[in-house]
Amino acid sequence: MKAVSELLTPGTRRRGVPLDVARIREDFPILKQQVCGRPLVYLDNAATSQKPRQVIEAISRFYSEDYSNIHRGVHTLSQRSTLAYEAVRGKVQRLINAAEDREIIFVRGTTEGNNLVAFGYLRPLLQAGDEILISGLEHHSNIVPWQMLCEEKNAHLRVIPINDNGEVLLDAYEKLLTAKTRLVAVTHVSNALGTINPVGQMIELAHRRQVPVLVDGAQAIPHLVVDVKALDCDFYTFSGHKLYGPTGIGVLYGKASLLESMSPFQGGGDMIASVTFEKTTYNKIPHKFEAGTPDIAGVIGLGAAIDYVQAIGIDAISAYEEDLLEYATEKISKIPGVHILGTAREKASVLSFTLEGVHPHDIGTILDQQGIAIRAGHHCAQPVMDRFQVPATARASFAFYNTKEEVDALVNGIRTVMEVFN
Ligand SMILES: Cc1ncc(COP(=O)(O)O)c(C=O)c1O
Fold it and tell me: How far apart are CA 140 and CA 402, in angstroms?
């Protein structure tokens, strides 16, 4: 097996220089298979990405050699497990450039991170008549928790409109930021359209009014260099499984001062300093928010995934994927009857489209028969579908292990769909 550091052609960790994708693909065992008698073309990376051998082996090694429960054992395995688990907190800190590792809370995923902020941070502060501001591009997991809270507290959910390209309207955003706004929750990259939101600018505008900002980073973390210090966001959430890591693990980043001000979200073991029947005192952050036995192996796998992408270089990944998206957009937009949704100037790795006279589910099914995995549906972003007046789209989403040949296969696949329907 190749060391991760060998995955780049020597001296290529620069923008615009191609990755050695053939060698990278050797690390992903699942990509070697055939589906319906054709080589698998996996283009459903926005839903979840595939796992390199390094991640699979790190989890297996952990269970085979080091596994035990963490934080409360004096024995060797527990200490090893604790060290390995806590080391990943440092890896996440460095990945997103957080100021301190105690600002990293391990959660189940983006959804749980968003809910933790909704119910752990905002619920005690929110009053009747207050407003929460989200964008018209959000995934349901960055809509529903806020809606639940608004219902409970008689508060209002406000939505920043988007234009026909799928970009947020910054003028409208500024006007929606008022003395009533208690939080802005906005996606970094749209999962349905691929739009990269100008989150830095949006955070600055919110902070001028002392409004904190949560950034949903589920679709940004695999594709962009994320720097929470430079962004100055108050909260940032993401999922390990979209970053080539395991399911069941994700991250909530929060500024230490905010996390310290918050009450725990769940009670249980590990989040306490002391317990009597009369009174419990809570542990320090981050442990205050990690009640019970966490997904220890998930954290280990996430650590291996971070090592993997960082060895390649996220800037190199970003540049490669940008090129691939441009190539795919150009090719697919030329197919008669195809309509691309999401034509923002800044986009990452997502190509959403419809084909005249064909339901996206039929596109997905016929492509599957050719070994091509895409997603068809509303992508857990029904308001985006409503905005573009479509029930669903077909969505191809790319990772750094995808190739232009695979894009060509997708183009041929779409042509076959057209033949079936004409
Ligand atoms: C933008 C965005 N936010 C949140 C989520 C939810 O992520 P998870 O299901 O891993 O919690 C997703 C998943 O697709 C997403 O794309």
Answer: 27
Q: Please name the residue that has the structure tokens 């042509």.
A: 415
Residue 111 beta carbon below 6 angstroms from any ligand 1 atom: yes
For 13-32, b where at least 16 C-beta lie within 10 A, e where not — what string? eeeeeebbbeebbbbbeebe
Which tens digits make up the pLDDT trace of 354-390?
Answer: 999 999 999 999 999 999 999 999 999 999 999 999 9
And the tokens for 120? Answer: 């752990």
Using a 6 Å cutoff on CB, does residue 110 contact ligand 1?
yes
pTM: 0.95
Nearest to 325 by CA among 376, 411, 396, 401: 396
| Mean predicted confidence (pLDDT) in 310-328 | 97
Inter-CA distances, 328 with 38, 57, 219, 321, 410, Å: 20, 33, 19, 10, 9
The region that residue 218 occupies, defined by phi over 0 for left and psi between -120 and 50 for alpha, beta otherwise, is: alpha
Q: Report the C-alpha gap between 85 and 51 in whole angstroms.
A: 19
Q: Cβ(196)–Cβ(218) under 8 Å?
A: no
Residue 153 CB neighbours (<10 A): 18
User: Which ligand 1 atom lies nearest to the CA of residue 141?
Assistant: 4
- The stretches of 27-169 forming alpha helices (DSSP H) are 53-61, 76-96, 110-116, 144-153
Number of helices (H), then strands (E), in the chain? 14, 17
Token readout for 332 is 């697919």
Q: From 191, 241, 249, 347, give the residue whose CB has the most ligand 1 atoms within 8 Å, as the site to mutate.
A: 191
The tokens describing 92, both together, are: 């996440």
Model pLDDT for residues 222-237, shown as the tens digit of each residue:
999 999 999 999 999 9
Cβ neighbors of 137 (< 8 A, separation 6 or more) are 162, 166, 168, 186, 187, 190, 192, 193, 195, 197, 381, 384
Ligand 1 center to 3 CA (angstroms): 30
Name which of 193, 169, 188 is nearest 341 in CA terms: 193
Q: In sequence order, what are the residues at sequence separation of 6 or more whose Cβ sits closer than 8 angstroms to the Cβ of residue 155?
A: 126, 127, 128, 129, 130, 131, 132, 149, 182
Helical axes 360-368 vs 404-421, angle rounded to 10°: 120
Q: Within 10 Å of residue 291's Cβ, how many Cβ atoms?
A: 18
| Residue 13 clears pLDDT 60, i.e. is over it | no
